[in-house]
Amino acid sequence: MHSLFMKRIFFVILFFSLIFLFTVPVQTLTIRSMDGKTLFTFPVTNKSSFVLGFIHSVEKTPVESEYRVLSGKIRQWEERFISQNAGLPTEAPQNGRFIMDRKWMILRGGGLVARNIRYRVGNDLLGRNRLLLPDGSELALYEDFPGDILVFSAETTDFLRHGISRVF
Fold this sequence. Notes:
The protein has one domain. The chain is of the alpha+beta class. The radius of gyration is 21 Å and the shape is elongated. It is 21% helix and 42% strand. Strands 3, 4, 5, 6, 7, 8, 10 and 11 form an eight-stranded antiparallel β-sheet that branches.
């Protein structure tokens, strides 16, 4: 009798565990080449952000754009730059703020919202593009993908598929 009860409890726990694996959503930041090949997939939370940075071609100063993946979309959270000459923004966007700190001029809010972003990578002479990931690691995009166009996309999948895709 006790053994039958324990088997039922086991199968109930197993059943709900499988439901969990098939239904819990996982948000990811996926980076693909223009031909659709998946290069990287990173799990992200609503509070995590990633930064795309480059060296401005005229000003020769760093520019950083911080993005967040929220509700299946990529949202530009803020843009940081040191100088505002040569094509860089000069005023805050609608629903945004212009902030000055000791190092950066910052435009926060009111930026781009999209499911995916096409991003042209420069090289070691032009751009020196880099990607700072939510975990703090950094990729020198200009070294690995010089002259390429990368597609950054916000995707949602279930926990099980995400786990399988990380293994295979």
